[in-house]
Each structure stands twice: as C-alpha cells, then as structure tokens.
Design brief:
With 333 residues, the chain is α/β, with parallel strands linked by helices. The chain folds into two domains: 68 residues, no CATH class; 191 residues, Collagenase (Catalytic Domain). It is built from nine helices and five strands; from the N terminus they run ααααβαβααβββαα. The chain is globular, with a radius of gyration of 20 Å. It starts with 14 loop residues before the first helix and ends with a helix. Bound molecules: calcium ion (CA) and zinc ion. The site of zinc ion has 5 residues, from α8. The site of calcium ion has 5 residues, from loops.
Length: 333
C-alpha cells in the first residue's frame, strides 16, 4: 500500500522545495513533456561582462519572488496522486468506457439525479465534539451547491462522534488513519461517502481517496477534513466549506487543476486552462502558462485549485462529465 503513496505536497512543504520545483520546473519527473519547460519559458539568456550565463541567477530570482506568495497559511491537500503510468491507464480506461457508452447512446445524466449517502464521523481528543450538527448540515448544503450541475446529490444519513486522540491526529497513510477508518467507515460500499473530521497537523486541510483505488483498499475510501474547515470553523480563509467540495472532487475522480503544470495532459481536463503552480488567495488575471498552446487564465475559481474558499465557485463541464463517468465506472453511482 505505502509503495503507491507519494504525497502530492512537494510544492508546499518548505521554501527549499519551492525553489527546487521552480529550478527543476517539474515535480513530476516521469513526464518527459515537462522537463526543462520552466527554464525555456521563464529564463532569458543575457551574458554579462564576463560572458557568464545568467540563466541560473534569473531562475533563482524568479523563485525568490514567488516565495512570499506561498506562506504557511497556503491551502494544502494531502490527496495522493497516481504515478504517471497508472494515471495513463486510468485515462485510457475512461476513454474505452466512454466509447462503449456512446455506442449504446447513453445520454448525459440529469443534475442531482443520483443520491450519494454520506456518513459523517466526528473525531475528537477529549470528549468534546468539535463540530455542531448545524455545521455538518451546512457542510452538506455547501457540497450540494458546488456539485449542483453534477448528477450527484449528497444526503446525510448519520453522524457519529468518537473520542480517540491518536485518530484525531491521523495523517495520510498512517496506522491511525487505517484503524479509524476500519472501525468507523461502516457500512463499507464503493458508492458511500464517509467524511471524517480531525486535526491532522502538517498544515493539511484534508485528503481523499480516488474511485479507482476502492477495489484494492475498500476501507480506506473516504474524505478526511480538518474540523475547523467546516462552515463557521476557525480555519479562515478556509472555513466556508470549500475544502470538503474540493476533497469530494478527488473522491469522484478529479485531479488538481495545476497537476502536471504547463502540459497538454495537465489535469486530464481540456476546459481547465493549464496552470503551472497552485494559486492562493484569489488572484485576478493570473496566467502562469504563457505559451500560445496553453490559452486561458489560470482557473483560480475552480474547486480543484488551492485558492481561498470564497474564491472557489466552479467545476467545469468536462470536470462534471469526468466525475459522472468515473463514478459510474468505479463507484456504481
Ligand atoms: Ca486542463
Ligand atoms: Zn486536493
């Protein structure tokens, strides 16, 4: 299990790694299309009096300019992305699945026509519940607004409260996570959404499992949330409930919009413009992939970016088509 888990948090861990990813231009070195792209696009060759190549200096300066915009407070998601070969296979299988559907003339699905049962598991350290029933109800409403154009409607079936300090501080891939999910994630079914509220530390707001991993790790399936990210929580500017919408986006098969940076494959979605890095705050007119073949401004309002909750308000048509198809394929939804 651990072999497949590599945290998709490299760009946010510390300043050294930010510089590293800028200098090397590519956290995903398995993708040959990305190698060296930042060097070519962002650095200019200006020989100085000594005839020295300034590219390294300029690239470092560029990285330093970026650092202040990525603070400790930046959104951080611990969802583990698949390695490139697996990702390619998932996309190929999706293509086959779509072709089979087209031949049977299956039409697009009606928005909110499929109920998704949600079980909410509140975990705390000292017997005092950290989220109220109203917050949970509001969280489900926020998710339903975010997914309003999708086939899915989230229906809260049950809430439970558990006191367990180790589970409360679970981190992605930990023994505590496995134990908590095995004990609480019942009933276990591929189409049931288990939400867990905890305090994971590491600056994480949450993480999710992808649909295609259900068959191998059924009890792992679900979404873990920082308890204070729920609507009305204290994790401003991430306390309006968009973290759950983002993580459930992963749970239905979506990647980050900035995945793979300025590449054609990017997030496997054509109508989200390619994006070099996660955006934070709520920038306007941000355009991080300047080449002509990557038109469009960065999708900073997309739920699958890293901006503030108040900035996020959309899934694109292709994202909705992908989650609809992937959930039919792998979750029976
Ligand atoms: Ca895209
Ligand atoms: Zn994420």
């Amino acid at each position: 299990m651990e072999a497949e888990r590599t945290l998709d948090t490299g760009q946010y861990v510390d300043q050294e790694k930010i510089i590293y990813s800028e200098r090397n231009s590519n956290p995903d070195s398995h993708n040959p299309e990305m190698l060296g792209r930042n060097w070519r696009s962002e650095s200019v060759k200006i020989p100085d009096n000594h005839g020295r190549n300034w590219r390294v200096t300029l690239a470092l300066l560029f990285a330093l300019i970026l650092i202040p915009s990525v603070s400790e407070a930046a959104r951080k998601c611990g969802t583990v992305r698949p390695p490139p070969p697996k990702r390619a296979r998932i996309d190929k299988d999706l293509q086959k699945f779509r072709m089979a559907r087209t031949s049977r003339a299956v039409s697009a699905r009606t928005p909110q026509s499929v109920n998704v049962s949600v079980y909410f598991h509140e975990i705390n350290a000292d017997g005092r519940s950290l989220v109220s029933d109203t917050q949970i109800t509001n969280q489900i409403s926020i998710m339903n607004s975010g997914f309003a154009a999708s086939p899915f409607k989230f229906v809260l079936i049950r809430t439970d409260h558990t006191t367990n300090s180790a589970w409360f501080h679970m981190t992605p891939g930990s023994a505590a996570e496995r134990a908590a999910k095995a004990a609480l994630g019942i009933p276990q079914a591929k189409g049931i959404l288990h939400l867990y509220s905890v305090s994971p530390g590491q600056g994480l707001l949450g993480w999710a499992t992808f649909p295609w991993d259900y068959w191998k790790y059924p009890s792992d399936s679900g979404v873990v949330l920082l308890y204070s990210s729920l609507p009305g929580g204290s994790a401003a500017p991430y306390n309006l409930g968009a973290t759950a919408t983002h993580e459930v986006g992963h749970w239905t098969g979506l990647y980050h919009t900035f995945q793979n940076g300025c590449t054609k494959v990017s997030d496997s979605i054509d109508d989200t413009p390619a994006e070099r890095n996660p955006a934070s705050g709520c920038p306007s007119d941000l355009d991080s992939c300047l080449q002509k073949r990557f038109p469009g401004l960065d999708p900073v309002h997309n739920y699958m970016d890293y901006t503030d909750d108040a900035c996020m308000n959309q899934f694109t048509a292709e994202q909705i088509q992908r989650m609809s198809d992937i959930c039919l394929q792998y979750r029976g939804l």
